[in-house]
Amino acid sequence: MADDARGFWKTPAALAVRANPDQPVAELECNGTPGFVGDKADGLRLFEERGAVLSSLQEKLYANGRSGDRRSVLLVLQGMDTAGKGGMVRHVIGHVDPQGVDHAAFGVPTAEEKRHHFLWRINRALPRGGQLGVFDRSHYEDVLVVRVHDLVPEEIWTGRYDEINQFEKELVLAGTTLVKVAMFVSLDEQKSRLRERLERRDKYWKYNPSDVDERQLWPAYQEAYQAMLDKTSTDYAPWYVVPCDRKWYSRIAVTELLIDALEKLDLDWPTATFDIDAEKRRLAES
Ligand code: AMP
Ligand code: MG
Q1: Among 164, 223, 234, 284, which is most buried by a count of CB atoms within 10 Å?
Q2: Whose CA is nearest to atom 22 of ligand 1?
């Protein structure tokens, strides 16, 4: 970690927000800034600095992918409406070269998707080697919205936690590092973000009347999120629980989680597959 970043994180983000069974979702302070000791101005400055670091690491991942490395990183974003998933993509992933990003958003399954196993559409969207994958919602909807709304019988969704763990274990073995981020916004902050969507012409498109229905189911969602964290935060694919009332914080936290994941790959620039001196000579003579 750069000196500046180290100074502002009294606990590294990957430790500060890692899902902890002793800290239930119901007690989470959504306007907190776990691990971070600076203020908003510090956070915004650091965001640009660390975004550049993220960009350079991602370029290395991409370069290695081009040279045949099968490894990839997959950011999974889960959160209620207005938690800031779209902004996370736009601003955090916005720091990196779009060529190296495999982005997928998962909405209500299409008729075709419904005919398949719930992991079918997920499998088709996995990042290729060298790519930074981003899931805006994910297979976890199949134990969240599906559980809250009884979209399939209980005996089916209860089995999905184990299925997901097995699926993710295989993904990790195949070379994908999962960075799973559960984004939490408080009910008050959600209300004000939804109100803004109703007050601004440029935000109507983000508003969906069903967001208010979902909001009223918050206790059921909280229970479903808690079960998800309890059952699917594993040592090979842990969950990170990120408070999102302060967007500047959630964005620097996720930037650090991605930097951490990429640094652990210990990437170097791919070596030349040609004779450098011979090529320099050829070029000079050309
Ligand atoms: P948005 O992310 O605002 O575009 O909304 C997407 C909607 O699709 C959300 O209401 C999700 O809960 C819903 N959704 C995503 N995956 C599923 C699923 N597997 N089953 C049912 N609804 C889903
Ligand atoms: Mg929405």
Answers
A1: 164
A2: 108
pLDDT in tens, 218-244: 999 999 999 999 999 999 999 999 999
Centre a 10 Å sphere on the Cβ of residue 72 and count the other Cβ atoms it contains.
24
Structural domain boundaries in the chain: 3-285
| Atom 4 (ligand 1) nearest CA | 107
Tell me the best of 106, 144, 206 to mutate to test the pocket of ligand 1, counting ligand atoms within 8 Å of each CB and taking the most.
106
- Residue nearest (by alpha carbon) to ligand 1 atom 17: 108
List C-alpha distances in Å: 57 to 13, 24, 92. 17, 33, 13
Which residues crowd ion ligand 2, with CB under 5 Å?
Answer: 81
Angstrom CA distances, 116 to 111, 120, 154, 164, stand at 9, 6, 18, 16
N residues, the chain: 286
Contact indicator for 167, 234 with CB cutoff of 8 Å:
no
